[in-house]
Amino acid sequence: MNSTAPTGQILEISDPRWLDFSDAAPGACIFHHPAWSELMARAYGFRPFVLAIVDAAGGIRAGLPVIETRPRHWTSLPFTDHCAPLALDAESLGRLTDFALASYRDRGLDSLELRWPYPTRPLVRPKDLFVIHNLALDGDFEAVSRQIHAMHRRNAKNAQKRGVRIHSGTGKDELKAFYALHLETRRRQGTPVQPWAFFEALRSQVLDKGLGFILLAYHEKDCLAAAVFLHWGETLTYKYGASSISGLSLRPNDLLFTEAIRWGCENGYQVMDFGRTDFANTGLREFKSRWGAAETPLTYSFIPAAPDGHESRLMSLAQAVIRRSPRLVCRLTGELLYRYFG
Fold first, then answer.
1. CB 137 within 8 A of CB 144
2. Tens of pLDDT along 228-264?
3. pLDDT in tens, 121-131
4. Which of 6, 55, 86, 228 sits at a 20 to 30 Å CA gap from 264?
5. Closest listed residue to residue 59, CA positions, set 18, 12, 102, 2
6. Could you say which architecture CATH assigns to the domain 132-297+314-335?
7. pTM
8. Residues 6+ apart with CB under 8 A from 120
9. Which residues fall within 8 angstroms of residue 283, CB to CB, at 6 or more apart?
């Protein structure tokens, strides 16, 4: 056996080698940054770590952040749209995949969920659940904006003419304004809202470290729409969005996304990630595509196979209750149960 061959190791998420490796790896985004995993650990009490292939000199050749969401259940990563493995070459990627499978077997795990299509191996069961949308950016915002559907460009201009303005920030006031709209939007959708403590942790663990910001669309004193954007590597990621039904006629979201794209272009980002969308949600898929974003399938991999109806029955029951209840119920449901919806 070659003693100098790279080996699989489990590293702490805080290991500086992981930050250095992922910072230099093509395709890395905010979900690979230690701050994102540390946010999950702080907000929900999860244990984060990195599955890594390490060479004889101690350098990382491939790696993947993972979180133990409950005993013997590993996910890469919960509350995360996608998380691709990072690797220097195909051989290292293969070693990483084999190490993940060996860890599942040797540690007696009940499940391993990988939020990316992995090379075919025994036990790995792919399942197409979502699509993702990515818009290619460059330094010329005007050139990028020509890819945007004329309707969105027109709506953004009209929003400005009607007095809608965009404010950017990372402070507690911006976070509170976003959260108020987020709570309203989640109740309307019948979806539990993340605990307030999660967003406080997001501010301290991510936004305060210069890894994101909040955009808010105002008309006079009213906040009509808000969104949280995260950024790292070459990717600007749209993560959370919310809006008021009463203000939609002023088209605040068109102006908000336009300004986000402008910011990405002006600050050297190469991609704007619009996030995942349920395959069946054709309306939202069309909305994202109209911004010039290319749609691609997003495959998750499960060990063992994901059961039919991967979405939790608990979520279905919660949706029915939340839509018919005051906002307080939406918030309390999230405080008590959201960690189980990851």
1. yes
2. 999 999 999 999 999 999 999 999 999 999 999 999 9
3. 655 666 677 99
4. 86
5. 18
6. 3-Layer(aba) Sandwich (3.40)
7. 0.89
8. none
9. none
